[in-house]
Write a structure and sequence with these properties.
single chain, 300 residues, alpha+beta, 2 domains, seven-stranded antiparallel beta sheet, three-stranded antiparallel beta sheet, binds zinc ion
Length: 300
């Protein structure tokens, strides 16, 4: 299997650039032990410091065998502070907030994200963070903060397992983002500013990736859950999408279902059903599991 060409030893290139150019003060991610040597070399070249620490539990997620977390920054003190907060406060709301702030996330978004872990949301398998974010959105969702494909930041342990079990899927989507945090809404001003900064930087450093990201993120998206969604090459009008094709990447949605959408040219998203039309005639009707299932995100 081909590794995502924008990933360097498990770190996405935009995360690295954000750190190198001072958009973000700290990078933190789970890595494979084999990658440490290579990352060390990259750090040396770019004047960055790092520490690697094992965790057998991170917040509410327990691991069968410890995972390695790497912290990278220009500022040596930040590394230890982030590690100590996560180690001593694993599971606590306070630790999440401190680390969110150390990572340079907007405080409105840190607050929003932390809220989920103080409530029994995580036990609810139907619960979806993008739908919560969307419900707080007033006005047009901005593609600059489209985080639908940035899954690692919001999956609970069960979802994370599913994600890791499907490396091809992870490879298809993991480079498609401009912000790495969960925004408090798809119109969050602070997040949009970060997304814009990231895009400006990518346009200079990785113009092809910048183009690819804008092309995928700035599209209507029909969202069922984190593993089931479709990107449309088309336009939204109210609850209707008129489209010419379904764009890659594909989610884990069953092929038969994707095919139904490919057969149409118009989708109407209702409260109970998603209807697919071809030449004004309905060709398929899909029953929604509930009202939060099948939501149209009009990113532009
Ligand atoms: Zn925010």
């Amino acid at each position: 299997m081909d590794k995502n060409r924008y990933s360097m030893y498990g770190i996405q290139i935009q995360e690295w650039l954000a750190l190198k150019h001072g958009i973000k003060p700290l990078l933190r991610t789970v890595i494979q032990p084999d990658d440490v040597k290579n990352i060390e070399k990259l750090c040396r070249e770019d004047g960055l410091f790092y520490i690697v620490k094992p965790f057998s539990q991170l917040y509410l997620t327990k691991f069968d065998s410890p995972v390695n977390v790497i912290y990278i920054s220009k500022n040596k003190d930040l590394l230890e502070r982030a590690y100590q907060s996560e180690k001593s406060g694993s599971g606590s709301l306070g630790a999440r907030k401190i680390v969110g702030e150390l990572l340079g996330y907007p405080s409105c978004c840190v607050e929003f994200y932390s809220e989920f872990f103080s409530q029994p949301y995580l036990k609810d398998t139907k619960f979806s963070i993008p739908i919560k974010t969307y419900s707080k959105t007033q006005g047009k969702p901005s593609f600059l903060v489209n985080n639908i494909f940035k899954l690692e930041s919001r999956l609970s342990s069960k979802g994370l397992e599913e994600y890791q079990k499907n490396p091809d899927f992870a490879d298809r989507v993991s480079h498609l983002f401009l912000i790495s945090h969960v925004p408090c809404s798809y119109t969050c001003k602070e997040s949009i500013k970060m997304g814009r900064e990231m895009l400006d930087l990518l346009e200079k450093e990785e113009p092809e990736l910048a183009k690819e990201i804008v092309f995928r993120l700035k599209r209507p998206l029909l969202y069922f859950d984190d593993f089931n969604w479709l990107i449309f090459n088309g336009r939204v009008n109210g609850n209707t999408i008129n489209y010419t094709s379904i764009l890659p990447p594909l989610s884990l949605m069953p092929e038969g279902l994707v095919k139904k959408f490919r057969e149409g040219s118009e989708v109407k998203v209702g409260k109970e059903f998603v209807d697919i039309f071809k030449n004004k005639e309905r060709v398929h009707r899909i029953k929604k599991k509930d009202k939060d299932n099948g939501i149209l995100f009009n990113f532009s």
